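Subject: sequence -> structure tokens, single chain

Hey, anyone have a minute? Need the predicted structure for the following. Not urgent.
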Amino acid sequence: MGDVALILGIRPDVIRASKIIKLIDEFDELELDFIWSGQHYSENMKDVFFNQLNVRKPDYEFDIDGKSDADIVSSTITSLYEHFKDHRYKAVIFLGDTNTVMGSIAAAQHNIPIIHIEGCMRSYDWRMPEEKYRTIIDHLSDRIYAYLDSYKEQGINEGIGESRITVTGNPIVDIIFENRHLFIQGADLVEESINTIVKTEDYVVATCHRRENILDGDSLNSIVSLINSVEDRIIFPMGYKTQEQLSKLQMDLSENVHVVDPIGYIEFMYLIENSKYVISDSGTVIEEACILEIPSIQMRKSTERPEVYDVGASVKFDPTRKNDNKKIVSEVIKLVGTKWDNPFGDGTASEKIAQDIKSMYLEDSFHGHDRKDYPFNTDRSYMS
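Reply:
Had a minute. Here:
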């Protein structure tokens, strides 16, 4: 049994955690159990991401089942609760803000300290399931790794003790810096029709997966209208739920839109790096484009990553209201070829996180919910 466990459940989190896993595995003093919740279940795509990023296979894999968020969350909590009965870890690590992080409730029920990577990000948009999840896990966590000072400030404003939050930078920067030389290999992995577009045309990369976008007919129609207003060729790696919704609602994309099934990390980064700009509702994709200095249109009413607007890397498109699509496309085209400062860190986040976890393990200092850790007086609760 490992000393500390890391629980992941979706492919983007594998990308973000890949170097952290390798660094912790190098420590002789600490053994890491890697647990895969199974929230993103696609054996082929899961293994593609593990293999391309040279991430070892999980020590434990759960068969999380369910069609709704409630099903997935309850199954995750139950599975981890049973696992923790026999595996009394010194601490458990979660990353991000998806259904999987609700497994932190199981850890809390066993009084196992919780570490949250990607803490204190806020959109202040309660429509998003992720906003609820990240708020809950941050308040349960004993240690929070916030990517930016502004995120830490958001946590402090909610009453989370400053001592529980450490600013590290964003590990997605580390992964891009270290793997960028591999992106050219995507040319050998994508289908030939895509390669022809990459080599001969200006093109745009599009993605769309957020539930508030694809499950709301008006929002999805607004997104289709935006995409159909683009004159350049579009390469659209499309998730199966999005494909299902477009078919169900009989929404058609223009002939210049080349739809493909989901692809691996290296192929996708090859497409982004060579694109004119990106259209997406994915926070991770918008981050990646920003780091690679590729402009983007962010298709969201609100975002927990406003930094892309601050540095002039992205244009906002709100699917919930009427937009001037031509104006928005014109605005993003103006950003093509411009430069901006990367707001997400210097490429050392994974090292900072891994070293801090090692230090806490050696010092047996994972617990962060003692009375002294609260930023206010607790005497009344203890009648002292």
